[in-house]
Amino acid sequence: MKLLFLICLFSAHTIYAQTTVTGTITNAGDSMPLPGVNVIEKGTTNGVLTNIDGKYTITTTTSENAILQFSFLGFTSTEVVVNDQTVINLVLQEGSESLDEVVITALGIKKDTRALGYSITQVKGDEMSNVKTTNAINSLQGKIAGVNITTNATGAAGSSRVVIRGASSLSGNNQPLYVVDGIPIGNNNNGSAGEWGGSDGGDGISSINPDEVASISVLKGGAASALYGSRASGGVIIITTKTGKNQKGLGVEFSSSTTFDKVNTSLNGFQTEYGQGRFGLKPISGADATDIGLNAWGPRLDGTSVPQWDGVSRPYSYAGNNQESFYNTGVTFINTIALSSSTDKSSFRFAVSNLDNDDITPNVALNRKTFSLNAGTVIADKLTANVNVKYVSEEVNNRPQLSDAPGNANYMTQLLSPNVPVSSMNPGTNGDGSEQVVTSNVFITNPYWAANEFKKKDNKNRIISSFSLRYDLNDWLYASARAGIDHYNIRRTNILPYGTGFFPLGQIQENNISYTQIDADLIIGADKDITDKISVNALVGSNTNHVENENIGLFGSQFIVPTLADFGNTVNQSGSRGFGERKISSIYGSFEVSYDDYAYLTFTGRNDWFSTLSFPGKETPNDDFYSSLSGSLIVSELMELPEEINFFKLRAGYSNVAGGAQDPYQLGLTYQIVGQGHQGQPLGNIANTSVPNQNLVAFNKSEVEVGLVARFFDNRMSLDLAYYRNETTNDIVPVAASVFSGYGSALANIGIVENKGFEFLISGNPIVTDNFSWNTSFNGAYNTGTVIATNDTDGDIVIGQPRSLNIAVTQIVGEAYGTLFGTAYARDDSGAIIYDTSSGVPIAQQAAERKILGSGVPPLTLGFSNSFQYKDFTMSFLIDGKFGGQIFSGTNAFARGAGLHQDTNPNGGRENGLVVSGTDTSGSSFTTTVSQEDLEIYFAPASYYGIAEASVYDNDYIKFRQLSIGYGLPSKYLDKTFLSSVNISFIATNLFYLMTTAPNIDPEAGFNVGNAQGLEWFGVPPTRNYGLSLNIKF
Amino acid sequence: MKKSIYIVLLLVFILSACDNGFEELNVDPTKPVQVDIKNKLSITQLYTSGSRYEVWRNMLIFNATMIQHLATTTSYWVGDKYLRNDGYASSQIDRDYENAIKTIEDMLLQVENEGQPAEMEAIVRILRVFVFHRLTDLYGDIPYSEAGQAVISDILTPKYDKQEDIYADMLNELEVSAAALGSGMSGFGSADLMFQGDQTKWKKFANSLMLRLALRMSNVDPAGAEQWAVKAINGGVMTSNADIAFIQMQTGPTALNQSAFGQVFLVDDVSLSTTLVDALSGDPRLPILAARRSDESTAIPDLQGFPNGLDLTMLAASTGEANEDNYAHPNRMLVTLDAPTVFQTYAEVELLLAEAALKGWGAGDVQQHYNAGVTAAMKMYEVLYGSAAAVADADIATFLANNPYDVANGMEQIATQHWIATFFNEYETYSNWRRTGYPVLVPVNYPGNVTNGTIPRRMTYSTSEQSNNTANYNAAIESQGPDVMTTRMWWDVN
What we know:
The complex is a heterodimer of chains A (about 1050) and B (about 500).
Chain A: H1 2-11, E1 20-27, E2 38-41, E3 47-49, E4 55-59, E5 67-71, E6 78-81, E7 90-92, E8 102-104, E9 110-112, E10 120-124, H2 126-129, E11 147-151, E12 160-164, E13 177-180, E14 183-185, E15 213-219, H3 222-225, E16 236-241, E17 251-263, H4 286-292, E18 305-307, E19 313-315, H5 322-326, E20 330-342, E21 346-358, E22 365-380, E23 383-397, H6 409-415, H7 447-453, E24 455-472, E25 477-496, E26 507-529, E27 534-559, E28 570-595, E29 599-610, E30 623-634, H8 635-638, E31 645-659, E32 671-678, E33 681-686, E34 690-691, E35 699-712, E36 717-736, E37 745-768, E38 772-789, E39 797-800, E40 807-811, E41 819-822, E42 834-836, E43 843-844, E44 851-855, E45 860-870, E46 873-883, E47 886-889, H9 890-897, E48 914-920, E49 925-930, H10 935-939, E50 952-954, E51 957-968, H11 971-974, E52 981-996, E53 1015-1016, E54 1023-1033
Parallel strand pairs in A: 1-7, 13-16, 34-37, 42-48, 47-53
Antiparallel strand pairs in A: 1-4, 2-3, 2-5, 5-6, 8-9, 10-15, 11-12, 13-14, 15-16, 17-20, 17-54, 18-19, 20-21, 21-22, 22-23, 23-24, 24-25, 25-26, 26-27, 27-28, 28-29, 29-30, 30-31, 31-35, 32-33, 35-36, 36-37, 37-38, 38-45, 39-40, 40-41, 41-44, 42-43, 45-46, 46-51, 47-50, 48-49, 51-52, 52-54
Chain B: H1 2-16, H2 22-25, H3 37-49, H4 52-66, E1 70-71, H5 86-89, H6 91-114, H7 118-139, H8 150-153, H9 163-180, H10 199-216, H11 222-235, E2 245-248, H12 260-265, E3 271-272, H13 274-279, H14 286-289, E4 290-292, H15 312-319, E5 328-330, E6 340-344, H16 346-358, H17 366-385, H18 393-402, H19 410-421, H20 426-436, H21 465-468, H22 470-480
Antiparallel strand pairs in B: 1-3, 2-6, 4-5
Helix pairs in contact in B: 3-6, 4-6, 4-20, 6-7, 7-9, 7-10, 9-10, 10-11, 10-16, 16-17, 16-19, 17-18, 19-20
């Protein structure tokens, strides 16, 4: 009731007329127009940017006393009182005491960075569009301190893992909330590989067309994202797409890029001197070669003619790099054309984009078409509306099979002996249409059979649309409403072909996966100067969020007509339907008070109700209230600082965010009917594999952050530092249960995770001359995540493991998040490995208990970017690195067993044997030489499914991530044409490594993007990508 | 002014409706809150017949090769060479507790809650003993009294019970349950995939199982063994091949319906061990169990067993052969997708009776039981696999005439016939062999084996127990010995 009263009271004010102001902003230095200047009506969220000609048009929404603020990075901000002016032209001075930027904060509210008591990083859309990747979010890797992006070995259509300020949930979702043009979008990983194989089904953020992104705002901490509520516990990435505002007449923009992907084998150091064989002997026949399979324990390659798997004898010599021979040159075309226009009252931008990718694995392809429309209009006096529609149609063929060997083309290609050419296995099919099996282990699929005959297809249609209305009740009070929908549908076909060695009769799975998220907000906001010095900015709002998933599946096995892979052509058929629905309702409010533009304080509060915490008869609450408080102080305005310091701000924030259970239906015990019965009798049992918990409550994540922003030397250099500490309590965890309990786990609210760390960003323009400029920035973050509590007995929580099952990514109390816990060498007190020497060959012994072998999450991430401009040429590059993590490498474990690993080829060659020293089981030390024929027995314990420790490596790296060299056609050539700008660039990503520590594998070679990082198992090999990009405007 | 009132009213409306309907929303609309207990019995019986996962890893790759029924050079068939594979070794635990045992404990609760008739409870309890005896015989001490009760009793980390205590309780359970069974159709009716609701057959099965368990402890507790054996015999054991406890599998529609053997042998092609084929010399069962891999010939001269413990290099070195094509592999009619899965046969029961008689436990004439056992074992293939698997009565008579029961080697003969008759019920073969020591098997000694060249005495626990149930796991090791394949369990004192 109080609220009603207040609103009624404030509404009584007189409402003034609007004014439309136009003008041109120029640079004082060169008198050239300045595009991209922020023009903001002071005290409102009404704002525009100047266009390419430095021109702007803004309609004031408040009174005749409106004040316009003009700001641009590197230039002095200026304020002009509008009065009755309709034209305001301005010359901005470069380098000034204040470099205030306007950024997009939670709920799309634009704010001056001065007011922020927390860390936000906003980057321009061209960070995504200059050097494009098939999943646009990957372009941000290494660019934002504290944002850890992992692009794993999942292929071009695969997902990315983005974690901000460390993973804070032991087993829940740790990726940020993506908000596109005001509405949250789904970022589900629609399929991923586990220890038994699988393929990455792609994620939600990959639908975004990089050419249409105007800006990306990353809300890292809780104070920044608290207004988004529970879904923002992993931070928020706000993507704002381009609009047609300020486009006089019809603007046309065309951009095109073509890039090529080549497999990068530079890290592979396998031996190429010894060929297929065992115990130092060559295969004696084709059948023998088939049975020897992936064993390069033969003698030194000598060029003689030796039978291989197909009975054909080939020279016993190095056959060349099989990866280079098997994988194709991938190619990606991205073309976008955008039309935009605006009038005083309305604007629109419409863009069509086509992305065509042929991945390096044969027959793997991605096509993505996006259509996007942004339109805004002033419907009536004080009433503005914006409509936003994106339609994405995506088709992916043959998402690559990863991890375990069956159906995985990467596996055999990587492990073939040096003398066996993969090309001999092409096309992989026998005359009768069955797989040409290459080894006696049928579970290792012929790579050509895997690539040619395993058929997978995804057709995804997605619509993301939002509609928003804003009504200005008077010059300081507004109401806005926004509703949006993200809906997609995936039709997926997955065929395991007839004739496959490990599954001769074949099977087919058809799925229809649908996802719908509806999100609506209603906000009333006020923005008022109370006195000369005190202003208040406040809002209250409510939100509802509704998510529905459905997966309908048809499953058929045993093809009747062998050549026809169709569901109707199967002997055994079954169907399934999965369904999930959840809702969150919320109310929230924010109150910001500022004093004299140098002291700011913001309080936010939000209450969420969760359907996933509701259940009939439940007595514990299904909701939670949480709040944040943050403030900033511009010290440089308070006191006199040395003149080198142009600006100095301190900020601090505290926040608390709560969240519900991620998935519905986890509170009650349910049953299920299984299959279609047996002998006419229905089958049924308990559906839960995890013990349900009727008392689940919300988890909490609290965070404290402090930071500073400073600018020095005429604003040529700036520094942004942040320190934070956050703690998740009541984390909803699957507490590990004994296998004997009948359940895999039990849900409970007992996890505690702590993350603390700091972030820095140093940037500057060391050289600025008329013809040449250099911009540089160096960012980094150091985060330590620690597991404080897992369950009532502080037991371990296993979150993932590789196929060898000898190591698991485990949450262990007191240890780093995602600890690698696995089998280790038995060692004596001095640390020497204990060997059983009784058979003559020293056999490394395995310790009785598993040991902590590392952590899959690197604590330190660094990024160093530079851009240079010389006349019409630009050049930029980005180097990034991650340090301090470890990785378990299945490739190394198997290469050791297969006699490919460089370890198996000691200095001086195998003929001279390998000198081994250690401790024997009686405790005496020994030194012995293992002969060539015994090497494979010696290496066996450190291979395959053996001692995991042997294949855990430090995983530090520095990559030369991005390079772009561009040329912009000088305007003198364009003046007489219809063109307004032409840019052409050479672009490249992942060109080379400056440093890696794990042998033979790409440091980013995980097989999925889940919480269990630090496991490598035969993913798609790394690639170098380079090409050309063209951008034309007219 | 009016507009702002509307907006405020709208807000108030939204707030008041914040969690309306949330409770119902979080009840899964695709899942029932309970199912008929009959549906649970059917699925538990299918679980008990085994899925490809554990039948492949434990029963075939380990048990069947160790016991020298099967042999192969295939590298991941580690049991053939006593190599280590923790995941394979624990696979029976990894599947049985989350499937069969969890459902059985839930059925016992439902029987009680719904006041179902006593015979239904008895059937569930007999099935429970069946599942648990196989597990304890493979692993020794295991969680029994507290197992599968995470939801029912909040026990996430069950204690391990001593095998001795488990045996005592299982025998008692069988006695009580057999007594609760009447005659005619049980409440389960034809949802009972094993005996189609026939209570008499369940009673015979309970007593036959009691006889099996009794003899299992004959070395460690002879007095107890005799007492329980007599009790079983008096209660009435299986009397013909019509009493065999088995489940008929189907070709589909899902893997759950299919024979695990059928699924495994569709892909893996391994041989019959020389030890088995040699033991079947002059036995009419040889062409029913075996066929030459290269051409499926069942002509006796074509059927040669494959030695255990060889890899391909060793094979090539000794014979020049590059594969197992010339050797016998399991006859394809035994490994169809709709083959039956056998739990206990009348033939086994007669051979157990023969042994009881031999021990002087007043169970009739040894030779008579022996002959009945061999005869039933030969005739059961027709019952289980159809007329193509029939053995002519004349052939049986000839076999018995040529191989009469010999008192001097009675135990060895009985145990060897048991070893043959339980082909493809490898759990039982493995247990009985460990107890009797017959037939005498020559172990292999492949480089890198983890048993020092001896046939493993048990399978190892799930490695997850080390971290998920540490205290109880350590207590079990303290009590039983190290968690390795050479540790002997309570009854294994031969």
